[in-house]
Write a structure and sequence with these properties.
This protein is of the alpha+beta class. The chain contains five helices and 18 strands.
Amino acid sequence: MKVFDRIKAMTGRWKYLAVGGLVLALGLMLYLPAAPGDDVSWVAVSSHKLEHEIGLVGKIEPIETSIITAPFEGLVLANELSPGMQVEQGQALLSLDTALLEIKLRDALANQLKMQQTVEIYRTWATDPQVLQAKQMLRVAELSKQTLDLEFSQVEALYQKGIVPRNELDALKQQRYLQSLELTAAKVQLKSVLAAGKGEAKAIADMEYQNASIAHEQLNALLELKMLHAPFSGVVLSLGVPQSTGGEVEAIHAGALLAKGQQLIKLANMKGLKIVTQVSESDVNKFALNQKVAISGDGFSGRQLSGYVSAISQMAVQDENPGSAARFPITITVNAPENGDFKDVRLGMSVHMTIVTYRNENSFIIPHAAVEQAEDGMFVHHRERLDAPVVRREVTIGQSTAKGVEVFGLDSGFVSVKADAQ
């Protein structure tokens, strides 16, 4: 009986030891860091150059266009231009008839001379006949008043002596009063005539003369434009006023009547070139001003041009399909070649462009599965060497690539990737 109890007691201790060992093994599995095994693989990471490129297509356009309009109404005397023709700076383009302009010029000159005479009258207003007449009337009124005053004093003395009757004195007194009124009126008249030469009338005459002079000068300046010259070296893009459906309203030929301001020539400045293309709304924010652009084309094969992004539109182009993605115009300015010559490049040529939208000389790319997302950020398990301890490091996500994702906050070494995530 004692032997049986002893064996039973020993069997109970082995049970407790087995359970304790199992608990200890589970604890080690949960709390000790993972070591290289079948469920985790370690991927080597190091810095590499990362570039993102976007390819675009477009057509060569002039950096600047200028529209030459008719400076005045007249007839075309001669025209030897044609679309696509090259012109040099200062070259004669069109010759215009000035007959109608000369008529307007003579009318303007006549009006200027009339206004000049009026201004001269007001400048010498003190000797104007109206002023002289008013002064003469005032002088006559003053002399008449003096004569009546003298006569009145004499008759009054005789009346005091009883030599002349009362009615003769009263009649002379009445004449004297009337003459005083006439003298006052002559003074007012002279004052009014003198003021007319210094007031609004003179100011109006001065302004009318200035306007007439300016009009004559402008017409005279237009007369110098009877021969239109190229403002710069370039290419003739079109002649006449384009219709909304294309083409021209009327050909510019000899004898054609032109209206002032009518479009005559659209000229392209070939001292610089640009390319206008469109990008989708998903890519437009990848571009920035002054980004470098590599340009190539079949029309100038064997020669590569360079440029830079010079403008990014803030407004999408209108699209007839309301369900399509928005597209935004982007302008690329072409850098001038070292020899400054674009002779091999022609307007309208198709080009292919490559734009580097992102570059990082020291980029760390790791598999997507190596990144663990937690509530407080993104983390990876990293070790400098395979025999080094594992460190949990917080990282920031950058660009995404076909090989993985770019991360910041990491050094060269190894990152863990779960085998079932590969």
